[in-house]
Amino acid sequence: MADAKSVRGGAKIARPLSPHLQIYSPLINMVMSILHRITGAALYFGSLLLAWWLIAAASGPQYFGYVMFLFGSVPGKLVLVGFTWALIHHAVGGLRHFLWDTGRGYDLKTIDLLSWGSIVVSILLTALVWAAVMWLK
Amino acid sequence: MTRSTKMRTPLKNVRRLGSAKEGADHFWKQRMTGVANLFLAVFLVWLLVSLGGAGHAQVKSALASPLVSIPLLLLILSAMVHMRLGMQTIIEDYVASEGPKLVCLMLNTFFTILVGVASVFAVLRLTFGA
After folding, report:
1. Which CATH number fits the domain that encloses residue A49?
2. Minimal Cβ distance to B53: which of A50, A51, A137
3. ipTM, 2 decimals?
């Protein structure tokens, strides 16, 4: 097992660390917790897409047309669908955390329900948003 | 040195590492920007869906309206604060050594401010029609 090194009085002391992810079998609330962090980090870099779109629009029709062509391509669309899902999943996960912040919803049944609910709702809403995109075209 | 000969209390080790009164600051700002982002992200999704595949002129005229550009500017500000706080937590969790951690935290601040300022600049340029 990994040891943490801490310094006390000039001497290094090896201390045991608590067991990490690989020790536990995956539970839905744990998977959702990890997904919340992963989607958050993805959105962090995904903010570059919004910045890029805005800068392209501010640069003029020619460059904007080029960027829209990239976003409209198959890999571009896949990235945008992924971005939409990450945004919605992170938002739904945020709602779950707001409820937990009030001290409610900590019994196992509710935790499982909220965890499964957030993945189901995020996928449904993503499908709904992209159905609207296709329909409006 | 054994415990019995040490006359200092552990308080010495935590002094000047931060005021306890700021303890909830990070948590509270993350929640506040989270609430703001919830509404502003719904607006963004609505805007992008309604502008899906729109040409340059259409996007420009949409962003010329303060009803569009003000929520966009608010979203950029709120999201950048939220992003910076979130990434700070990730860095503090995974980057253990002090030097690389400081560098990462600094880059985190630089990145979010750069993306934020560039986006705000683009929105303002579209709004005021340069």
Report:
1. 1.20.1300.10
2. A137
3. 0.85
